[in-house]
Structures are given as structure tokens and as C-alpha cells.
Amino acid sequence: MGRRLKQLTKRNETYVSLVVLALCLLIEVRSGQFFTANNLVDIASAMVVPGLFAVGTFMVIVSGGIDVSFPALASLTSYATTKMLLDAGYTGGVWLPILISMAMGALLGAFNGIFIGLLGLPAMIVTLGSSSVFKGVMQGALGSVQLAVIPPGMRAFGTSSLFTATNPVSGLTSRMPVGFLALVAILLLSFFIMRYTFFGRGIYAIGGNEASAHRAGFNTKRTKFLLYVFVGMVASLAGLIRTCMMQQNHPTNMLGMEMNIIAGVVLGGTAISGGAGSLTGCMLGTLLIVIVENSMILIGIPTIWKSVFVGALIIIGTGVSAYQVVRANRVRSTRRLTGESKA
Amino acid sequence: MADSILRAVDIQKSFAGVHALKGVALDIAPGEIHCLAGENGSGKSTLIKIISGVYQPDGGHIAFNGTKLSRITPIDAILLGIQVIYQDFSVFPNLTVMENLALNSELSDKRKIVNWQRMRKIAEEAVAKINFQVDLDALVGTLTVAQKQMVAICRALMFNARLIIMDEPTTALTRKEVDALFKVILRLKAQGISILFVSHKLNEVFEISERFTILRNGELVITGNTRDLNSSRFSYYMTGREFTDGQFTAENLGGTPLLEVKNLGLSGAFEGISFVLRGGEILGITGLLDSGRSELALALFGIREADSGEILIKGKGARINTPQAAIEQGIGLVPEDRLSEGLFLPRSISDNLIIAEIDRLANRFKVLDKKERAREVDRLIAEFAIATPNPLNACQTLSGGNQQRVVLGKWLACNLDVLVLNGPTVGVDIGSKHDIHGILQNLARQGMGIIIISDDLPEVIRNCSRVIVLKSGRIVEEMDAAEATEQAILSRMM
User: Fold this and answer.
1) B370: which of A210, B28, B200, B341 lies 20 to 30 Å off by Cα?
2) Which chain B residues have any C-beta within 8 angstroms of a chain A C-beta?
3) In sequence order, what are the residues at sequence separation of 6 or more whose Cβ sits closer than 8 angstroms to the Cβ of residue B320?
4) Chain B residues touching A199 at Cβ < 8 A
5) Cβ of residue A204 closer than 8 Å to a chain B Cβ
């Protein structure tokens, strides 16, 4: 038990949970509105799209890469899908839109994957470029305008709920969207991939030392290629769900989300240099960002100050975890000097 | 029929017209510890890569266990039982010991799904083979270099290895760890595994290997029994030069001490360090890896400021809390790891040479004077005999010995009074080592005060006029190098 507790103090997840908890309590004390059923459901609902993006970003960062193209990718695939189905007068269920957009996501992810995985170009440069290409295709070739109407199947999916929570005091109600199940499913799937498949262990290995991974027998090129395909599919799913939940498609309003998503993943303890991090931490970091984005208003901080708050949080959060690492290393080197550890 | 496990005959290899191996032969018996020695560029690594299937030879052939091989791949070599332990060990610092050990064999079985229990069993069996005590759940990044090496050895043993090639395995190990490694090597030998030990450290060659092969410029110089070898013959075979190593004696010592250290301490590293350094002498400081010797070097150069005691420069008190302050006081440091701490490897040789005196080369508009710079670079390259066709080439194109000359040249450009060198010839081949020692002795004769921090005892004894021995952060002995012997120093160090 003591050992378990000691291990907890070394884990980044512990600190992020404490910060999340402290923030929740602060909001609760100031507003009395945080731990109400409808607010909790609202936060869960707000987690769906950032959560999906974060899963993909997490996997890419663990592999030692970075992806800044996912908002553009999600915008392009969701816009193209919605427009195509509207033009065709599609009236069926939500499965076909999901399938179409994920297929397109796989294709666009493969575009990243070819350059990063197969040709070995730096991920930052490639995704900055592809982000621009995706935006260009959407705005130029598809002549994007806001789509105020979406196909009925998508509309039904966006409005259907698992349950509804009511605030007994104010009477406000919040719906838990069915899309939340997609987040849960993708989380379970990626947990399984990262922990129980050699594809996932290969992602960790490549992030730790790519040359060694190659020597150990991993097909590093294929692993990276497939990783970007998978991440493209997850991002396009997020884009489609967002369109359904908003009941309209605004082609540019996801653009610019990448920085907060990456920040959440890194806040959750994923090493920006690759090789280390957990899905739990990644979700906690994202949750922290979502709470700040959504609940500042509850403690009376005007929305115009929100980005200052988010920025400060990122600097403090990553600073604290960086400090932990430095301290751990210093303790180790001093111990070596004084000859304490003979392990 | 096989009286040799590996026989390489008349191996030829060229790269873009450069003849890297010219008819080299190598013969290793089963259960033999064979040392392959040679300076940088002698063709050692090319030969290893041919044996392990990374390169194909242009001529000649390799026979393994009596069977002639043709065109093998790295995987074929592994399946035959040839394992290479590279200098970087090819481990994953971010994964646990268990996973590092089990990944290779699971991947070669083409498994897709992870079974953590089976991985643990594989890892347990692997460490049991050489009785290596380690926490299987520890991240490899938290292990010491020696432990990482053991992980790499355990991993190599899982594939029924018949021949293990170790590329400079002792480079970053302490004396104790080297002893432990040698025990493991002897244990492997007892199991009938052959070891090809690549090294250019003389004492190790004598200590561990039964037979040796020396290469020079891609040619086989000699192969034979280690007991017929002595140190001057070894140096001659390696370099093709005869060395007459004279003991350095300090002449015309300066009057006022250049540097005086009184009761210097740094918590967790060293305490109560006092010594005097005069111009014209070379002071040796030696001790084990954990004796505080490296931290003392950092403190003298202001990277980690000492937290007690005082430093006097030419009799005056000085505060050395940053490298800038140290340079202003005329102190330079040649760091332990020249690659990451002493050089900008991708930058040009000339940039590296003038970096410490760059302010002096600026004209009155504070812009770098190109003519002045070129003149300075030419002077330094000539003075230190740096072998390069073009000073604008990247520093990483130089051999280890030449890189170390660049580090020295950089400091000497700034007219220092005191030069502190931490492990000045680690990873430098014999010829360059000799030349660097010559440079240091000359500098001392010209009146500079030099401190050599090193655990290479012959180096310390031959080049220093006085030797200080550190143990657990304290001075335990100060002796005249003329009277010091390796035995005497070792007995104080341990």
C-alpha cells in the first residue's frame, strides 16, 4: 500500500487530477453551480469532440510526431460529407455519413502518413502543409459556405440523447448526447491498441528510439503510416459528430483548436519528445482545458479573459511537470554521488 | 570439423572509391574471447557490419561454423547466432526492462497481440541466464549505463547466440562495472559462446582476451596470442609509429599560484578541497566515477558554483559562479563529453575554433571581422595540426582525436592561464592521445597551469607533476607523480 501510494506521487496523472479537483471545488465554492447534474452533463457533452481529437493527438505525440492538421482534416471531411449528402437528398440514418467521412479521413490521414511515415519527413512541417492544403481544398474547390441545414439522419443523431439531467434549483436541463458513446468506444479501442497490440507498443518504441525500434524488428514505416491513417479516421469522426451536435456545418469554426488540444495532451503528462504518456493523463488534461473553457463564466471571469486563463494554465501545468522531472533527476544523481543506491 | 566458429577470409570492401577493407582475415574459435583493435578509421566497424550482415563484402567470404555464407542479411546473422551489442545498446529508455527484453523475440515470432504474462516470463528467463539482478518493472532510462548494457546482453542471449560482438563495451563504465562485465563475459565463454571484443584500450585487451587481431588503414596488421603482446608493441601495431613517452617534470614553476582553492565544497559532491596550482605545472586529479571529480571540474568552471570555501586567482579572491566569470578569470574547461558539452558538431570547424574569442574578433561595429577570423582559424589549425581538407567542414566530420584538438584550440585562442581537462583522451585513439599529451606538456612549459582530471592512471602518472586522489568527495592523498605508481594510487582510490 505504501509503495502504491509512493508510485502515485510520481505519476503526472495524480497531479493533474488534483488540479482538476481543486478547480472544480473552487468553481463550486464560488458559484455553487459546478456539482449540479446539468453542469456535469454539459461538461461531459463538451468533452466529446476535444476528447476524440485528444486521443489522436496523444497517439501521434507518443510516436514522437506531432499533428496540427486534424482540425482542417475534420472540417474538410465533415463539410464534404454533409454537402455531398445534402446534394444527393440523403434521408437515411447516421451510419452512412459516419462511414463516408471516416473513409475520407483515412485517405487524408494516409496523405500525412505517406510523407511522415514512408518518406520520413518531419511531422510538424508535413502537417502544417497538409493543414493548409485541406483548408484550401475546402474553401476553394468545395466553395465552403455555412451549411445551416444538415441531413435528417445526422440531425436525429445530434439531438438524440442517452438521458437528460435537470437542475432541481434552476430547472435547467442538459442532454447527454449519444455521441458520448463514440468517445467511450474510441477510448476503449485506443487503450487496447496502445497496451495490448504490438502495433501500439511499436508506437511507444518508435517514440523512445526509432533506430532501435527498427533494429528490434518493428516495421517503423508501416507503423507510422497506419498511425496517421487511424488518427485521420478518429479526427474525421470527431468532425462529423460536431456537425451533428451543432445541427449545422460551419466550415471554419474548428480551425485553431489544435493548440488547446495539444496543450491538454501535454498537460496530462504526455512527453512532447515522445515515448511516454497515458490515455488517462491525456483525458485528464483535456478535461482540465474543457472545464476552464466552459466554466470560467460560473466564477465570474468574463469570457474575454478566458484565453489568458487557459494560457496561464498551460504554462503553469507544463512547468510543474517539467520541474518534477528535473527534481527526480537531481535526486537520482545526488544519490549516485553519495553511493546510496546499490541497485 | 569446425575448429573456428567464424572465419573471414580476404575480405574486401570499398565505399565510393575508398578502400575500407583490403583483404582482411579474422579467425575466432568457439568459446574464445577475441579482441579486435585498431584506431578510428582502421576498418573495425566495417568488418563488424560485414560479419553481422549489414554490409555485403566486395570480395572474400565468411564461414560460420564451417559453412560458407553468401549474401546474408542482419536477420540471417541473428538466426545463425551472431549478435552485435552496439555502443548505444539499442534499448528503449521509455519502456520497462521487461518489455525491452521481450520485444525482440515476440516480434520475431510475428505476434500481434501483447500477452504481458508471457512477456514477463521471457524477461525472467533472460535475466536468469547471467544471474542479473534488476527490477523488471523499472524504466530502462532510470538504469545506469552498466545496467543498460546488461539488458542488451541478456537480450542478445535469448537468440541462442554463438558469437557476441561487443562494440567498445567499456567506454562509459566505471572500473567496478568493467570487472562485473568481464565476469559475465567469462561466464558466457564457459557456456561455449565466443566473444569478439572491440576495443582500443590496451589494459582491457591484456586482461580479457586470449587472442587479438589489429587492423590499421583497412589492412590486417597482426593476429596472435595476447600473451605475446606488450604495450609498446601494441601501440606500434595500432599506429605504425614508435613512441618514446617521457615523464613530464615541471620546469620553471611560476611564483604566485595561478589558482588556489581553499576548503572548497559542494553539497552532495565534494568537501574540504584545497590545492595550489602554479604556472608551469600539470596537476592530476583522479578518483572513481563517484568521487566528485567531475563535479569539481564543473565547480572550477562555474557551471555548478561551489557552496563553501574560496577560490583565489593569482592571490586574489574571485567568485566563479558562471562559465563567463571563469573565462574572465582566465580559466577554461575541456569537458568530459566533448560531443555534447564541448563542441557544436554540425557547425564548421572554424566556428568551433573561434567561439570562445568571438568578442575579440569583432570590429568596432560589433560585427565579426571575416579576415581576422580566417587568419585566426588558419593559425589554430596549423598550430594544432588539425587534419582537415577544409576548415568550413562540419566538426562532426573529424575523428575523435581531431575533435579534441579543436576543443583545445578553442581555449588556447583566448590566452588562458588555467586549463581544466576532464577525461582529455576518453575515446581518443593512441596516436592522437600521444599528440594531445604533447600539446598539454608544451603548454605547461610555456607557463600555463593545467589540471588533468582522469581515471586513466598511466596518463595521469606520465603527464602530471603532482597527483591528488579523491575518494567520496574528499582528498585522501597528494603525491609527487615521480614517486606514484598505479598500485599506490589505486589502493587510495578504492
Assistant:
1) B341
2) 74, 88, 90-95, 99, 103-104, 106-108, 111-114, 134-135, 142, 144, 268-269, 290, 292, 295, 472-473
3) B299, B300, B301, B302, B305, B311, B326, B329, B331
4) 112
5) yes
Report ipTM for this prediction: 0.81
What CATH number labels B6-239? 3.40.50.300
Domain extent listing, chain B: 6-239, 257-493
B58 and B12 in contact (C-beta within 8 Å)?
yes
Give the closest residue to A41 by CA, choosing from A159, A181, A172, A164.
Answer: A164
Size of interface A-B (CB pairs under 8 A): 72
B182, B9 contact by CB (below 8 A): no
Region B309-323 average pLDDT: 89
| Residue contact B106–A198, C-beta within 8 A | yes
Among A115-119, B171-175, B241-245, B284-288, the range of highest mean pLDDT: A115-119
- What are the cell numbers at B227? 600473451
At the topology level of CATH, where does B257-493 sit?
Rossmann fold (3.40.50)
H-assigned helices in B81-228? 97-108, 116-129, 145-157, 175-190, 202-208
Chain A positions in Cβ-Cβ contact with residue B144 (cut-off 8 Å): 336
The model's pLDDT over B101-141, given as tens digits with 9 standing for 90+, comes to 998 888 888 888 889 999 999 999 888 888 888 899 999 98
Instruction: Single out the residue of B442, B423, B438, B407 nearest to residue B284, CA to CA.
Output: B423
State how far the Cα of B36 lies from the Cα of B26, in Å rounded to an integer: 9
Q: Is A188 exposed, middle or buried (0-12, 13-18, 19+ CB in 10 A)?
A: exposed
Beta-carbon separation of B473 and A337 below 8 A: yes
Amino acid letter, B253: L
Q: B110 to each of A218, B84, B103, B410, how far by Cα in Å?
A: 10, 21, 11, 52
Residue from B405, B430, B433 nearest B343 by CA: B405
Question: Which residues lie closer than 8 Å to A221 by C-beta, 6 or more apart?
Answer: A117, A118, A120
- In three-state secondary structure terms, B93 is coil
Place of cell 500481434: B112
CA separation for the pair B319, B305 (Å, rounded)? 9
- Nearest CB partner across the interface for B94, out of A215, A275, A338: A275
User: Rounded to an integer, what distance in angstroms lies between the CA atom of residue B275 and that of residue B263?
Assistant: 9
Sign of CA dihedral B138, B163, B177, B87: negative
A215 lies within 8 A of chain B by CB: yes
Which amino acid is located at B155 in the chain?
Answer: R
In angstroms, the separation between the Cα of residue B345 and the nearest Cα of chain A is 20
Do domains B6-239 and B257-493 share one topology? The answer is yes
